[in-house]
Design brief:
This protein is mostly helical. The chain has 2 domains: 74 residues, Winged helix-like DNA-binding domain superfamily/Winged helix DNA-binding domain (Arc Repressor Mutant, subunit A); 144 residues, Four Helix Bundle (Hemerythrin (Met), subunit A) (Up-down Bundle). Helix content is 73%, strand content 5%. The protein has 11 helices and 3 strands. It has a 3-stranded antiparallel β-sheet. A hairpin with a 2-residue loop joins strand 2 and strand 3. Helix 1 crosses helix 3, helix 4 packs antiparallel against helix 10 and helix 9 runs antiparallel to helix 10. It is globular, with a radius of gyration of 19 Å. The N and C termini lie far apart (50 Å).
Length: 225
């Protein structure tokens, strides 16, 4: 392969990734709602990109299970009950281990930044895929691979997490759970921190599964955001 061929291939990959990022952002911010079917023509118009770039970007998103093939385009994915349950099971394991690592390896500056991030929780009713608290928790625990493991799981259930942010009761409970985790981390108590994470994930799971069981009400709430 010539240098020119390598350049063309790299350019296509960069364009594909740019379009994939654009579509992923539209999914994660609710512009493209779960369950919606959207054609290639609409996607081309949305991204102002070529059909080839859109198709290559969709293959990336299909691999991440954010979209599913549909007639003349794709459907924005929604996790099934079993998949959501499995995601929360993995979250409980990975996040409790992360809590232990954070207690052991985080610097004092990391703890102070985590406290500041906690104080900012709840100022925006719509949560991003990862909050600032999550970002610090996963990136400063002393294991650089953990964020790359957990982030795709968060993306798969983002809409359920955003729905939780619209429920005053769940929002208040979630902040209390985060506070219990923060205190355990600041005390460097690994057992208590791991238990706090598991309690938080299990509560989030119960809310998510109830939302999925009542799918029609869930869809109305998302449209109201």
């Amino acid at each position: 392969m010539s240098a020119e061929d390598h350049t063309d291939t790299d350019s296509r990959k960069l364009l594909r990734d740019k379009v994939a990022d654009q579509l992923r952002a539209a999914i994660l911010d609710g512009t493209l709602l779960p369950g919606r079917r959207i054609t290639e023509v609409e996607l081309i118009e949305l991204t102002k990109s070529s059909r080839t770039s859109v198709r290559e970007a969709l293959r990336v998103l299909e691999a991440q299970r954010l979209v599913e093939p549909s007639v003349r385009g794709v459907q924005i994915s929604l996790p099934s009950m079993s998949e959501a349950r499995h995601i929360y099971e993995v979250r409980a394991v990975v996040e409790s281990y992360t809590a232990r690592l954070f207690c052991e390896r985080a610097l004092d500056d990391d703890m102070r930044d985590l406290r500041r991030a906690f104080e900012a929780i709840g100022r925006d009713s719509r949560s991003p895929v990862m909050t600032a608290f999550d970002e610090i928790f996963f990136t400063r625990c002393g294991n650089s691979a953990i964020k790359s493991v957990i982030e795709p799981l968060y993306a798969r259930i983002f809409v359920l997490r955003n729905l939780a942010s619209t429920s005053p009761a769940r929002r208040a409970a979630s902040k209390a759970e985060y506070y219990a985790l923060l205190e355990a981390l600041e005390d460097r108590n690994a057992d208590r921190a791991a238990a706090a994470v598991v309690k938080h994930v299990e509560a989030a799971r119960d809310f998510a599964l109830n939302a999925l069981m009542d799918h029609q009400d869930w869809r109305v709430e998302i449209k109201r955001r």
